[in-house]
């Protein structure tokens, strides 16, 4: 009987310890509902209902992010969610990476455009230069016809910057910008509300390149580049956070706001849990919530923390497999 009683007492202590850890990680107790009627209360959280609680909180975070996305529904862009270079638009000979973001020219002058276009609003994308030679980068409409002699900026309704020759191009060419180097990040920005195109080198604005860009019905601009032989670059249309985001401008590829909201929520909980774990395993003076617990609570606390971590990691691990979320949420 005594052994049975001891086991029951030990089981109750472990349960109390586990519930205390859960409450500490998810908000420290309280009787306020965490959502609409019927949602789990913090005081009733335990291993049996923690999965349901986490999923409901993640749905709430996604709904908030979704509301902000709906405010910008008519954004002025046409194309798929994933923005890459459109292989079918290739003129010349290009070696194109599997992700369709990296390019290397194998002909005299090769041109290609992205698979989306914009017709209103303010937009940007970035190019990381893998070489420093002749390249004309910028924006073009679908009606621009390129060849191995004519590229972006050599036709009407196309606008380009070339940092090798330090010039801008729109049929005519004029001095503009500054010399670029291998490894530079060149930002290409277009304001279709004002009809202005400008370029950035490593976050520094080079000034308005064109201030009379034709806008209006029937005119939509694609990101487009032309590369001389052996020149190469990698584009970022928004698949990872832009290196130098411009205030008021949007990347061509939508940030995954719902996934970001969920990842940040999970990381917030995980951070609290790690503080408790470090308090138990490393710090000579554990945090107050642990220090004030009875000695029997501290026994087996590592195991309890791992149990609480399991449902978090189950949801967080797939999200962190996404390069954008890793860079956006962990840096």
UniProtKB/TrEMBL annotation:
Record key words, sorted: Metal-binding, Zinc, Zinc-finger
Domain of life: Eukaryota
Keyword Metal-binding included in the entry's annotation: yes
GO BP term (any one): proteolysis involved in protein catabolic process
PROSITE patterns assigned: B302_SPRY
A Gene Ontology molecular function term of the record: zinc ion binding
Record-level GO cellular component terms: cytoplasm
Claim: ATP-binding is one of the keywords in the record: no
CDD domains according to UniProt: SPRY_RNF123
Pfam family membership, one: SPRY
Gene3D superfamilies given in the database record: 2.60.120.920
Domain (B30.2/SPRY): residue spans on this chain: 63-242
Protein name: E3 ubiquitin-protein ligase RNF123 like protein
Organism name: Argiope bruennichi
């Amino acid at each position: 009987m005594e052994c049975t009683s001891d086991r029951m007492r030990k089981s109750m202590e472990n349960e109390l310890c586990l519930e205390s850890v859960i409450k500490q990680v998810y908000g420290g107790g309280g009787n306020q509902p965490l959502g609409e009627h019927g949602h789990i209360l913090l005081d009733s959280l335990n291993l049996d209902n923690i999965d349901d609680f986490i999923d409901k909180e993640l749905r709430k975070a996604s709904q908030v992010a979704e509301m902000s996305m709906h405010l910008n529904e008519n954004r002025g862009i046409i194309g798929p969610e994933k923005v890459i270079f459109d292989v079918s638009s290739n003129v010349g000979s290009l070696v194109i990476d599997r992700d369709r973001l990296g390019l290397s020219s194998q002909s005299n002058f090769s041109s290609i455009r992205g698979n989306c276009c914009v017709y209103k609003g303010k937009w940007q994308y970035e190019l990381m230069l893998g070489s420093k030679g002749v390249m004309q980068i910028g924006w073009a409409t679908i009606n621009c016809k390129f060849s191995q002699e004519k590229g972006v900026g050599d036709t009407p309704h196309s606008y380009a910057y070339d940092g090798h020759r330090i010039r801008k191009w729109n049929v005519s060419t004029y001095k503009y910008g500054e010399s670029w180097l291998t490894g530079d990040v060149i930002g290409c920005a277009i304001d279709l509300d004002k009809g202005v195109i400008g370029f950035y080198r490593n976050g520094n604005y080079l000034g308005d390149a064109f201030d009379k860009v034709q806008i209006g019905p029937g005119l939509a601009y694609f990101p487009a580049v032309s590369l001389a032989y052996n020149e190469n670059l990698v584009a970022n249309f928004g698949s990872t956070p832009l290196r130098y985001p411009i205030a008021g401008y949007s990347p061509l590829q939508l940030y995954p706001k719902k996934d970001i909201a969920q990842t940040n929520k999970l990381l917030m909980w995980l951070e609290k849990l790690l503080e408790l774990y470090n308090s138990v395993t490393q710090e000579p003076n554990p945090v107050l919530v642990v220090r004030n617990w009875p000695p029997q609570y501290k026994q087996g606390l590592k195991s309890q923390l791992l149990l609480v971590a399991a449902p978090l990691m189950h949801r967080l691990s797939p999200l962190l497999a996404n390069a954008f979320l890793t860079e956006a949420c962990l840096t």
